Amino acid sequence: MAPKAAPAKKAAPAPAAAKAPAKAPAKAPAKKGKAATDAALKKAHAAKKAALKGTGKVIRKVRTSTTFHRPKTLRLARKPKYLRRSVPRVSGLDAYTVIRHPLNTESAMKKIEDQNTLVFICDVRANKRQIKDAVKRLYDVAPIRVNTLIRPDGQKKAYVKLPADVEALDIAGKIGFI
Predict the structure, then answer these.
(1) Conformational region of residue 67, where left means phi above 0, alpha means psi within -120 to 50, and beta covers everything else
(2) Chain centroid to CA 148: how far?
(3) Which of 38, 123, 127, 138 is the most exposed place for a label (fewest CB within 10 A)?
């Protein structure tokens, strides 16, 4: 049985040998451009080497700190597909909530007369900017500065300094506590 399998293998290479003479005429014209193909091969090898290893010098970053900080990357703003809240929240601190009432103690009156400063009791959650905006909106006066403190009873007191061209006594009269 083995001798039958051997002639079958020898029959397969015969067609390949028949094709070899057909390729021989194709190689003959290629001998003229052999130098061109060698140059193309060298160029291809050089391009491969440049792609793998790179062409420039490797510049190493000089590290000046012993701790590594992750580099800042692009952080895109959120673009939600739908609103998570159907109605936007309204700030609970409007001008009438920020300023509760003016203070008319003896020391507050002295501040009004001597230092051109109004004294208010304000919401504890309000900050100086909100107090300044509330005074501007309610009394049509642009304050110079606002100083605040939390009293021992837990209320916030605000000292609102007014410009020299506006009299604090006039504003206090307009408010109605003098």
Answers:
(1) beta
(2) 34
(3) 38
**Contact of 93 with 125, CB cutoff 8 Å:** yes
The encoded tokens of residue 93 equal 């601190």
Cα–Cα distance between 8 and 4 in angstroms, integer? 7
Distance CA 10, CA 8 (A): 6
Model pTM score: 0.53
Which of 147, 151, 178 lies closest to 162, judged by CA?
147
Q: What is the CA radius of gyration of the chain?
A: 45
162: nearest Cα among 105, 111, 94, 95: 111
- The bridge status of strand 117-122 relative to strand 99-102 is antiparallel
Question: What is the distance between the alpha carbons of residues 91 and 24, in angstroms, rounded to a whole number?
Answer: 90
* Alpha carbon distances (Å) from 50 to 38, 43, 46, 134, 136: 18, 10, 6, 68, 69
User: Torsion over CA of 167, 168, 170 and 171, rounded to 10 degrees?
Assistant: 130
Which residue ranges of the chain lie beneath pLDDT 50? Answer: 1, 8-9, 16-20, 24, 28, 30
Determine the distance from the C-alpha atom of residue 160 to the mean position of all C-alpha atoms in its chain, rounded to a whole number.
Answer: 37
- For the stretch 104-109, contacts whose Cβ atoms lie closer than 8 Å and that sit 24 or more positions apart, written own/partner, are 104/177, 104/178, 109/178
